[in-house]
Amino acid sequence: MLPFVSLKPRDTQSPTAAPVYLWLVCGLGLILSLSACETQVPKPNLPPSESDLVLLKPLTLCTSKPDFLKTHSAATLKMQTWGSGQEMILPADRSPSHGDESYFFDEDGLLIGALFTFSSGLDLNPYPILRQTLTMLKPALEFYLNVANLSSKSSMDSSALYETGDEKTTTQYLVLGSREQPSLLQASVTIDPYVRLFSPYRREFLERLRHPNGQKPGQQLDSQGSEDKEPFPSLQQFARGQTAQLSYCGAQNYDIAAHAYQKAITSGFTNKVWLAEAHHKLGQAWKGKGQQEKAKTEMLQSLAIRPNTPEVLNNLGTVYTELGEKANALVSFEKAVTLRPNYAIARYNLAEAIEPANPKRALAEYETYLALVEGIPDEASRIALVQQRVKALKH
Fold first, then answer.
1. Distance between CA 4 and CA 268 in Å, rounded?
2. Final residue of a domain: which of 186, 214, 242?
3. Is 291 helix (H, G, I), strand (E, B) or coil?
4. Residue 121 · residue 150 · CB < 8 Å
5. Which of 20, 38, 155, 177 is the most exposed place for a label (fewest CB within 10 A)?
6. Three-state SS at 171
7. Are residues 185 and 318 in the same domain?
């Protein structure tokens, strides 16, 4: 039996995410993946050329802290706490980009994101490929921003946030001014589970533009910038769990995932969708560790908080199957496809579960699965297997 695993945790890391993140409550990033739809919409693959924007060229996400320090002298870095992790800051007067470079490490010592801040603005005229990339992107957000150090600009100017990336990472650009004369204020890059924690529109990052070098500007726009409604430690640990469970930085690690999801729950999610998903993901981690009873307990807890969630029901069905509770497994798969008739993997699992007792029904479910996944390359091997089963059942 096949559990639902989001390989692209992107659209709904948070049920309360601000519009800037362009996340729909449709799956869970990072997110970030709150399991509301099976198929993720791919994001555009439009990163700028390495040779065109040199500030991102030396950055390799998932680098270990010791390896990072081999190329960055600790004496040049300012260290500060970042939740359960650490932020290392390379000041503008020492950085090759001439901006403040911040590198963020999780508690496992992995580089999971970076933020480059240009408090005086970086003229993008010398970067034609990046400028071309930005013209191909629709702004995720447009707003007015006060930046203290831009002497060549008015004290308040129009800014836009752009987002792009590849299969596992997201890059965001905060740009001031017109498309004809753009100026880069901030650029962030992160692995997707952490994307909601790295938007330049986050209030704490906008404050780095308003308060460069710790100075206090005369005008403060305290209402501007997104702010988490859930505890930062919970969000950070949830992202850490996703990173380990979905193999964003090396091999899958269910031990780290289980530890992280437990800490996320303990830190106190207030939104029931977040809390339910944390229990669901913890259940998947226990399942990966072979502890099916613990997996069942967590998934039942998830359903107690947020009933009738198809992904949780499907994954609970796979746990029941492992435990030999065939009747419960069948009930879970049946309910999953009743709630979401186009849930292909649940259809496949239901067909497998029901085939020994009801081959005719199994044949119908297999054929429904084939209709749902037609033309999907990632399903090719399973499609071939199902086609063999259909052929055998028809004879």
1. 25
2. 214
3. coil
4. yes
5. 155
6. strand
7. no
CA dihedral 131, 133, 134, 138 (to 10 degrees): 160
Can you read off the two tokens belonging to residue 168? 């596992």
What distance in Å separates the CA atoms of residue 310 and residue 11, rounded to the nearest whole number? 17
pLDDT at 62 exceeding the cut of 70: yes
Q: Is 384 exposed, middle or buried (0-12, 13-18, 19+ CB in 10 A)?
A: exposed
What the block records as the tokens of 359 is: 């081959």
Question: Which pLDDT tens digit goes with each residue over 282-333?
Answer: 999 999 999 999 999 999 999 999 999 999 999 999 999 999 999 999 999 9
CA distance 129 to 312: 44
Question: Which has the closest alpha carbon to 137: 160, 158, 159, 164?
Answer: 164
Return the number of other C-beta atoms located less than 10 Å from residue 355's C-beta. 17
Phi, psi of 8 (to 5 degrees): -135, 70
Q: pTM for the full model?
A: 0.84
Decide: 140 and 23 in contact? Cβ < 8 Å.
Answer: no
* Structural domain range at position 314: 308-394
**Is residue 324 situated within a structural domain?**
yes
